[in-house]
Amino acid sequence: MTDLRRSMKQAIILGLTGAVLIPVLYEVYANISTGGGLLLLTAWFIFAGIKFSGMSFKEAFIGIICTLAYSGVLGFVCSLAIHPAVMEMLVKRSVYFRLGLQGTIVFIVYALVISLIMYIIWVIRFFARKTIEKFRSNSEKAGQYIDNAFSDGEDER
C-alpha cells in the first residue's frame, strides 16, 4: 500500500506541475520554437517516466494515468489563465502568433505521443530489472552446480 500512496503522491505533484508546464510549453511551441517546445515537453515526460520507473506495474500504471489526467484537465484550466498573460507579454515585445485549430490539434497529438515515453521508460527499466534478476539467479544456480560437481559423495553421509 505504501507504493500506491507514493505513486499517487508523485502523480499529484507531477500532474500539477504538468498542468502549468504544458500550457507554457504550448506557448513556446506556438511563438518561440516548435522544436524547442517539443524538446522541453519530451524532457518533462522523460523526467516523469523516470520518477515512475522504480515502481511496480500496478503503481506505475495508475500513477502515469493519473498524471496524464491531472495534467490534461488542469492544464486546460491553467491555459485559460496563462494564455492571456503570455499573449499580453508577447504583444508588448513583438508579434504574437496564435495557432489555428489544426496547429493546436497537432501540438496535442505530439504531447500525447510523447507522453508514451513515460510508459516506455517504465517498460525498459522493468525488463532490465527482470533480466538482471534472471542472470543473478542463473549465476547462483551455476555456482551451486559447480560446488556439487566437485564435492564428494562421502561428505553428505
Task: Give a verbal description of the structure.
- By secondary structure, the chain is mostly helical.
- The chain has one domain (2-149).
- The chain is built from four helices and no strands.
- The chain has helices at 2-32, 34-52, 57-93, 101-150.
- Helix 1 (2-32) runs parallel beside helix 3 and helix 2 (34-52) packs parallel to helix 4 (101-150).
- It is elongated.
- The two termini are 48 Å apart.
- The relative contact order is 0.13.
- The model has no long low-confidence stretch (mean pLDDT 82).
Features of the shown structure:
157 residues, 4 helices
Query: How would a textbook summarize the main sheet?
Result: none
Question: Could you report the average pLDDT, rounded to the nearest whole number?
Answer: 82
Counting helices, strands and paired strands, the structural category is mainly alpha
Distance between the first and last residues' Cα:
48 Å
Encode the helix/strand succession as letters: HHHH
Number of strands: 0
- Helical element count? 4
Strand content: under 5%
Q: Based on the structure, what is the oligomeric state of the protein chains?
A: single chain
Overall form: elongated
How many structural units, i.e. domains?
1
The radius of gyration computed from the alpha-carbon positions, rounded to a whole number of angstroms, is 24 Å
Task: List low-pLDDT spans.
Answer: none
**Proportion of helical residues:** over 70%
